[in-house]
């Protein structure tokens, strides 16, 4: 949020650009006070990718597939627990979206960051989590946890073996991840935004850039200025809905 606020107050000359993401732009302003308004203080330039989220379970969890996982939680509501990187964090809200659509009840165990939460799942102290592919991939590829599916409806080219959770009955509309993109101060001239958007699109068309993004667990997904602007509105409303339904607030 500190870096985001710096860009909000920067000169609108195209030389200070925000590497925007779901946390500071979408979720944080919905659950707490922020020193900037994401809708009024920024102009979208382009989306560059999406970070897939993955449902992981402790390695001895009594379910081998996402369907078995849902059946187990439905059979024993409130018995199982899930770790997140904190109340109101993207991982918490995305997990709630999945649980809500699947009509599941589980105990939330918030941690201060994704690292401690994933450590708890790995140690078997917490039953499951929904976290980024970048954070979970080393764990499930080494067998420390098991991965049961991804939150992207079409799956992810970064881990094609992961089944979309949207294939589950009632979860068909789940298609969520953390976005990454570029934004600039709201007063930035249109011609500068267009130039930045054009160059971003060119860069994302190169194998070198796409490979670099993939290496950090970030699936390339380009949206131009208009599409990115529309996406941000939809993204915000998806999170607003789950926040209101669960009465989530980080501060007063």
Describe the structure.
- By secondary structure, the chain is an alpha+beta fold.
- The chain folds into two domains: 2-49 and 177-245, Bordetella uptake gene, domain 1 (D-Maltodextrin-Binding Protein, domain 2), CATH 3.40.190.150; 51-167, D-Maltodextrin-Binding Protein, domain 2 (3-Layer(aba) Sandwich), CATH 3.40.190.
- 41% of the residues lie in helices and 21% in strands.
- It is built from nine helices and eight strands.
- It has helices spanning 2-8, 22-31, 66-75, 90-102, 114-122, 133-141, 190-204, 207-215, 225-245, and strands at 18-21, 42-58, 81-84, 107-110, 128-132, 145-150, 177-185, 219-223.
- Strands 1, 2, 3, 4, 5, 6, 7 and 8 form an eight-stranded mixed β-sheet that branches.
- Helix 2 runs parallel beside helix 9 (225-245).
- The longest helix is centred in the C-terminal third of the chain and has 21 residues, at 225-245.
- It is globular.
- The mean pLDDT is 95.
Task: Explain briefly what this protein structure is.
The protein has 252 residues and is α+β, with helices and mostly antiparallel strands.
The number of distinct helices, counting runs of at least 4 residues, comes to: 9
Give the strand content: 15-25%
- Total domain units: 2
Q: Taking Cα atoms only, what radius of gyration do you get, to the nearest Å?
A: 19 Å
CATH class of the largest domain: Alpha Beta
Within CATH, the superfamily of the largest domain carries the name: Bordetella uptake gene, domain 1
**Known CATH architecture of the largest domain:** 3-Layer(aba) Sandwich
Distance between the termini: 18 Å
Overall average pLDDT: 95
Content-based structural category: alpha+beta
Largest sheet: 8 strands, mixed
What does the overall shape look like?
Answer: globular
The CATH topology of the largest domain is: D-Maltodextrin-Binding Protein, domain 2
What sequence of helices (H) and strands (E) makes up the elements?
HEHEHEHEHEHEEHHEH
**Number of E-type strands:** 8
- Measured as a percent range, the helix fraction is 40-55%
Q: Which residues form runs of ≥5 with pLDDT under 50?
A: none
């Amino acid at each position: 949020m500190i870096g985001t606020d710096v860009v909000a107050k920067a000169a609108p000359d195209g030389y200070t650009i925000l590497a925007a993401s779901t946390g500071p732009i979408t979720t944080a302003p919905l659950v707490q006070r922020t020193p900037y308004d994401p809708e009024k203080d920024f102009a979208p330039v382009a989306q560059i990718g999406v970070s897939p989220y993955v449902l992981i379970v402790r390695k001895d969890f009594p379910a081998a597939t996402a369907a078995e996982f849902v059946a187990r939680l439905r059979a024993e509501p409130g018995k199982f627990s899930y770790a997140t990187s904190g109340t109101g964090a993207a991982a918490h809200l995305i997990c709630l979206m999945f649980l809500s659509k699947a009509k599941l009840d589980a105990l939330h165990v918030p941690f201060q960051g994704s690292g401690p939460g994933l450590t708890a799942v790995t140690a078997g102290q917490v039953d499951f989590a929904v976290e980024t592919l970048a954070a979970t991939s080393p764990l499930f590829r080494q067998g420390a946890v098991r991965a049961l599916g991804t939150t992207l409806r079409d799956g992810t080219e970064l881990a094609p073996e992961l089944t979309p959770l949207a294939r589950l009955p009632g979860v068909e509309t789940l298609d969520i991840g953390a976005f990454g993109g570029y934004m600039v101060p709201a007063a930035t001239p249109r011609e500068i935004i267009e130039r930045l958007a054009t160059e971003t699109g060119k860069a994302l068309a190169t194998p070198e850039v796409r490979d670099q993004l993939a290496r950090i667990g970030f699936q390339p997904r380009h949206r131009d200025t208009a599409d990115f602007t529309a996406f941000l509105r939809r993204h915000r409303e998806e999170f607003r809905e789950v926040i209101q339904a669960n009465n989530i607030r980080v501060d007063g």
